[in-house]
Amino acid sequence: MGPPYTGRTGHARHISHTNNISHSAETGRRSHAGHSALTCEEARRTARAVLSAHGVVDHDIDAALLVVTELVSNARRHAGGTTAFTVRCLPPRAVVEVADAEPCFPVDRPSPASVPGRFGWQMVKRLAERVDVRAGGPGGTGKT
């Protein structure tokens, strides 16, 4: 999310979790698999916990949370929800992965500022240092 953050490089502390969200202290990874009901709020809470545990602060965490919100929101709106959600810290980078069951890749659809919507994907691409979309999500369908 933007330039590399300069937070701690150690492993994340254990974070208590519910709602089928798992966390690995060894990898600094927290994920949510197989539940299309993942809300943007749950995804942000998960991302904030992992990133904060690694010392990510201020504008870096804000940018990451915007990206998380847009990706999960788009999966809910256009693909029936998420099939997996993962946040990892691989210093000096944070990695956010959102998978859904829709095989179609996101499409840029420019829109005038007076028309609501269609800004999320463009915002993700501007805030993230790198954006990759791969075919096949959990179970071999959809995309990540």
Mean pLDDT: 76
- Residue stretches low in confidence (pLDDT < 50, at least 5 long) are 1-29
Portion of residues in helices? 25-40%
Strand content: 15-25%
Question: What order do the strands of the largest sheet run in, or round the barrel if closed?
Answer: 1-2-3-4
Distance between the termini: 17 Å
Shape: globular
What structural class should be given to the helix and strand makeup? alpha+beta
What's the tally of helices?
3
Q: What gyration radius follows from the Cα positions, in whole Å?
A: 15 Å
Structure overview:
Residues 1-29 have low confidence and may be disordered. By secondary structure, the protein is α+β, with helices and mostly antiparallel strands. It has helices spanning 40-53, 58-79, 120-127; strands at 21-24, 29-33, 82-90, 93-100. The chain has 3 helices and 4 strands.
Short summary:
This protein is 31% helix and 18% strand. It is α+β, with helices and mostly antiparallel strands and 144 residues long.
Write the layout of secondary structure elements.
Layout: E1 21-24, E2 29-33, H1 40-53, H2 58-79, E3 82-90, E4 93-100, H3 120-127
Antiparallel strand pairs: 1-2, 2-3, 3-4
Task: Tag the structure with descriptive keywords.
single chain, 144 residues, alpha+beta, 4-stranded antiparallel sheet, 3 helices, 18% strand
